[in-house]
Amino acid sequence: MAKLALKGGNPVRSSPYPAWPYWDDKELEAVRGVIESGRWGMAQGDRVKELEKRFAAYQDASFGIAVSSGTNALRAALLAAEIQTGAEVIMPAYTFVATATAVLESNAVPVFADIDPETYNISPESVEQVITDKTWGIMPVHLAGLPADMDRLNSLAARHGLVVIEDACQAWGSQYKGREVGALGKAGAFSFQSSKHLTAGEGGMVVTNDPDFSERCHSFVNCGRRTGGAWHEHVRLGGNYRLTELQAAVVLVQLERYPEMIARRQAGAKFLRERLALIDGIKPIALPDYVTSTSCHLFMLRYESGAFGGLPKAIFIKALNAEGIRPAHGGYYIPLFKQPLLLEKNLGPYDLITRHEFRGQVIDYSDFDCPVTERACESEAVWLLQNLLLADREGLEDIVRAFEKLRENYHELLE
Fold this sequence. Notes:
By secondary structure, the protein is of the alpha/beta class. 35% of the residues lie in helices and 15% in strands.
């Protein structure tokens, strides 16, 4: 008789894990207060300004600029840093597509570096290999809230005269050597999208320590206006990428409870890291010494199919979900440089890469070689989503039991 749920056995867990987003009466009261005030837009209210101030302080930054999404936070940061047309920006091949599209929509060119096999963050060695005389900047991603190796990346940037913009969209409260991420380079971008720990459905934030950058970024987000200028005076090309007062009110409430929530996620991640590391073929992503805090947006691990008789990752994840460990999935299954929009150059008016020369020939993204990223996408990376880390001890034990059950009975899935 089969033991695995995918083959007809009883699942480890039948009850759901904590739902996300989490909210209570405080969010309702905050939104009601904004609605009743009649001041729903940033220009009339004070919630956005308060969020900018408090979020920047939380991330050890001098300035915060609220925007309508994490994607627009990245784009605003690039433009406020005065990126030039045709500039190359190096980023990891293992990240969400917005890291690249923000660069493309800034009339610049994404260039891809491979990731470290232990952390899945951008590899400084790989970054150095793709620097050219057209390289303008580096955009490290603090994937799942795990800080990238900022000392080495900043050192590379200083040596080559490059700008560093941190994609910190998953890294609220993450720390590198005791410093909050986001303002370790020129600027950093954060997201308040619906899956994120601090969420209002959508929204984002740019943080920086540079006052001139902050002014340019505020201007870009607010239709090209200048701080203190007339409403119909526009000093540069900008757009309406403003956050609403309603969204800011929700994020402010979530920011109040965030220290407690991040502590719960970190405790859950620590428990899983210790217990799952004991299972042959399961390797939690490494936690380097320079990481003093991680947001634990995801719990990522490396699945070694050889320890499971060659069982494909997709079937392993399907079996994990069948045991009640939901949501678990395989993460990014296409390396970013292999996304159709880049291979086919389906970019509408942002078509610079159809003629941009990278090392002597028109850039062809199929030429990039990032074997660690390929392995992570195809056969190795397994993600447990952040709400699983909010479970009680029984829920965390069930995760461990499910992995152990699969390790003991994987042969059922090979038959």
